[in-house]
From TrEMBL:
GO terms for MF: transmembrane transporter activity
UniProt protein name: MFS transporter
Originating species: Halovulum dunhuangense
InterPro entries assigned to the protein according to its UniProt record, in alphabetical order: MFS (IPR011701), MFS_dom (IPR020846), MFS_Efflux_Transporters (IPR050189), MFS_trans_sf (IPR036259)
PANTHER family in the record: CHLORAMPHENICOL EFFLUX PUMP RV0191 (PTHR43124:SF3), PURINE EFFLUX PUMP PBUE (PTHR43124)
Amino acid sequence: MIPRLSPARRGLIVAALGSSLTVSWASSYYIPAVLAVPMAEDLGLSPVWVFGAFSMAMVVSAMVGPWAGARIDGAGGRGVLMLSNLVFAAGLCLLAVAPAPLVLFAGWAVIGLGMGIGLYEAGFATLAGIYGKEARGPITGITLIAGFASTVGWPLSGLMLATWGWREACIGWALIHLLVALPLNACLPKGTGSKAAPTSPVEDGPPPSRMALGLLAFVFAATWFNSTAMAAHLPGLLQAAGASTAVAIAAGALIGPAQVAARLLEFGLLRRFHPLISTRAAAAAHPLAAVALVTFGRPAAYAFALLHGAGNGILTIAKGTLPLALFGAGGYGRRIGWLNAPARILQAAAPLIFGAALTAWGLSAIWLTAGIGLAALIALLLLKKP
């Protein structure tokens, strides 16, 4: 039975969950950009090793995602999300006290466990349990809030690094989990709107076809690959197109606002349409941006960033809303855990693969992500509304 909640209560749930997820993203996915180099220097390593440990964390998150989703299906998301805050804090404390690379890798493995049970997939499954098929609006709401994770996380990590050091910055994030995110998750409803947890990723009443599940898993993997590749290498790509360093950085700064603007559009006008329609339009954005960049070069740098950012903003929401719209709320958590597992693994490899392509091919490397984006669009065109 889906609980009937007042609009004010719904708003508080979205605000609490969105804010706690902002902390989780900022203290895991976004800390290597600021802390990887000082971590490596302190331990006498190349930064490549720290980024390798971070990639390992994403593989760990892919492995535990289906379990976390199944747990949320059966018992609701509050307990799992609260556990994730404790796990994140433990992993960050391990990083803070790491005397050697082995402990550093152990800390990132624990953080990977926290990522598997405490990022968007867990948040989406929690909302599906609370709201059932009406979760599209709340899912969009939490992505609007957590979309500012880098905006909050990078400056705060930088401030703690400059004031205290990288180890103390990790302790600071651990305390934020315990004192801010944990109480916010404790405010969530205890139960779940759908108790039915499937015994396999395709069992939920009339089962969705394996082809549909496979197509959607491919779409998520392709879009995560492109998103992570651009997050790691966008300035270098734009410079390969002829942009100056200043222009490349300024264009890259537009991605965040473009993502938020697209999510506002999804929250308003696009919510009248089936998520499959908005997802198809979003999947076309990166290939179109790639064509513009190759055709016009440096003058298209800003247009590329805006198009890619807008598409990525809606695709992030689609990872939660599309499985719900296509396959229903029953067993939703376990299903999105399986659907996103390949995406997490490819996400771990994306910076290395695209970086090698950019080094070897220059601007022509964009055809790699454009081709992947086009394949994702074709897969979405093959999916049909129920």
